[in-house]
Amino acid sequence: MAGVPMDQREGWIWFDGELKPWKDAKIHVLTHGLHYASCVFEGQRAYGGEVFKLREHTERLIASGKTLDFTIPYSADEIDAACREVLAKNNLVDAYMRPVAWRGSEELSVPARNNTVHLAIAAWVWPSYFSTEEKLKGIRLEWSKWRRPAPDTIPCKAKAAGLYMICTLSKDAAMANGYADALMLDYRGYVAEATGANVFFIKGKDIVTPTPDCFLDGITRRTLIALAKANGFTVTERHMKPEELGDFDECFLTGTAAEVTPVSQIGEFSFTPAEGCRTLIDAYSAEVQPKQVAAE
Ligand SMILES: Cc1ncc(COP(=O)(O)O)c(C=O)c1O
Asked: What is the pLDDT of residue 296?
């Protein structure tokens, strides 16, 4: 259904406890979440019929709501069950899935404590379009002019809609200039992350990735750190200055949507995706497949 507008697709969306036909999953224009970004969401993928790290995504969703001072009115068990129901109802096996929670439309001004909290869950096919060989060509990134703000200026650990304002600005500017994505520095000038993914750098068997102290510590990021260690790499999390990027041979992004995406260029720096990226792409592809329960 590529190219079909998101509000015009066929299927079922879980909306406040019931499955609604896709086109009927609507909210009012005077919704608090729309005007004041009182909205949190998840991006998760199902592989072979199972959502990878579903409980971690659900817990992050609930925690993101708490960070924005609201309680999603469903338990983690209920949200997990709803995600599975959405997959089944839409006959999806490999899919991208978007749970989203927001404050409703009872009142429309900055304070929000009297507004109800809503939850919807949608899923659709969003395959990894590229073979490993294609991926290994790498994508080109532009430096963003926007910086990840200090942790005492935004709730940076939440996956909250408001934090994506500068991501959209950065990615649109990069794409207009012929790049695939943008890489953001943080408020101190350290390397931070791409607009929807974390970043890693490889030199030989050593991997370095920025410390996630003002941006999302991605679930894929943590998975990759474990897989890299299991595959004989050392992994160091530390602050990285942009001028040291020339010391590295390979670079890749990680994220639920991006999975493991090699990078060939960041601004003035070039990288050659090779064995390191290949090993980690393969390790991640194997990791996300549902684990067979050993026969009794
Ligand atoms: C800004 C940002 N950083 C990092 C990530 C990677 O997070 P995860 O691996 O949990 O998908 C994402 C994707 O959710 C993101 O939007």
From this structure: 44
The ranges assigned to domains in the chain are: 7-124, 132-288
Percent of the chain with pLDDT over 70: 97
Catalytic residue among 53, 135, 157, 159, which?
159
* H, E, C per residue of the chain: CCCCCHHHCCCEEEECCEEEEHHHCCCCCCCHHHHHCCEEECCEEEECCEECCHHHHHHHHHHHHHHCCCCCCCCHHHHHHHHHHHHHHCCCCCEEEEEEEEECCCCCCCCCCCCCEEEEEEEECCCCCCCHHHHCCCEEEEEEEEEECCCCCCCCCCCEHHHHHHHHHHHHHHHHCCCCEEEEEECCCCEEEECCCEEEEEECCEEEEECCCCCCCCHHHHHHHHHHHHCCCEEEEECCCHHHHHHCCEEEEEECCCEEEEEEEECCEECCCCHHHHHHHHHHHHHHCCCCCCCC
Is the full-model pTM beyond 0.90? yes
Catalytic site residue 291? no
To test the pocket of ligand 1, the residue of 164, 220, 280 to mutate (highest count of ligand atoms within 8 Å of its CB) is 220
> Was domain 7-124 assigned CATH 3.40.50.720?
no
Mean pLDDT of 55-84: 98
Beta carbons within 10 angstroms of residue 289's beta carbon: 11
Cβ atoms of 163 and 67 within 8 Å: the answer is no
Class of domain 132-288: alpha beta
Per residue in 133-145, pLDDT (tens digit) is 888 999 999 999 9
Structure token pair of residue 176: 């207009």
Please state the rounded mean pLDDT for residues 20-36. Answer: 98
| Site to substitute for ligand 1 among 209, 256, 261, 280, most atoms within 8 A of C-beta | 256
